[in-house]
Automatic annotation (TrEMBL):
Residues 28-95 form the BTB domain. It comes from Mya arenaria (Soft-shell clam). This is KLHL7-like protein. Transmembrane segments: none annotated. The lineage of its organism: Eukaryota, Metazoa, Spiralia, Lophotrochozoa, Mollusca. Gene3D superfamilies: Potassium Channel Kv1.1, Chain A. CDD domains: BTB_POZ_ZBTB_KLHL-like.
């Protein structure tokens, strides 16, 4: 999935966010299920996601008929924060969850969220731990973070002598 090189924050009405918080069924017309977790959202906001837009507009999908979206194999907390991002609530990214957010941005086809994650990677202080987390993401999700590439070039010997990169596979190192 392509993503914008610059992350631009958009603004949602506090009324829409309040309706989600209150789970107002008159306006929040789409229930999203992740395991036993269920939360309702506005279809007019969800369509910014290519995933939801496709489900809503393709009659072959069960979700198009039932109006219920079921997402599997993802954390409900990450799904909720990714959808909240569509309402312009920025997730709190860190080294422990950046991989999950890049993954959900790709899965839900939210280019703005992917750009937000890339911006976070670009601006976060570089460390061997961050590099070990970032390298697989580069290959899996076609990310380009010049500051990480520069850090690798400047600290290659240190990186090679450490143990943090022992679990990195060959694909993670291609073109870096």
């Amino acid at each position: 999935m392509e993503y914008e090189q610059e992350y631009e924050r958009k603004y949602a009405s506090s009324t829409l966010l309040r309706q989600v918080k209150e789970q107002n069924k008159d306006f929040c017309d789409v229930p999203v299920h992740v395991g036993t977790w269920v939360k309702r959202f506005h279809s007019c906001i969800l369509v910014e996601s290519g995933f939801f837009d496709t489900l809503f507009h393709t009659s072959e999908f069960r979700e198009h008929v039932t109006g219920v979206i079921e997402i599997r194999e993802r954390s409900s907390n990450i799904v909720d924060e990714a959808i909240q991002f569509l309402y312009n609530v920025e997730p709190n990214l860190n080294k422990d969850n950046i991989g999950e957010f890049v993954d959900i941005a790709e899965f839900l086809m939210i280019p703005r969220l992917k750009a937000f994650c890339v911006k976070w990677l670009e601006q976060t202080e570089k460390s061997i731990t961050l590099i070990a987390i970032s390298l697989p993401l580069f290959t899996l999700y076609d990310l380009d973070v010049p500051s990480v590439s520069d850090y690798i070039k400047k600290h290659l010997i240190e990186l090679m002598n450490g143990t943090e990169l022992l679990n990195i596979d060959a694909n993670s190192l291609q073109s870096r």
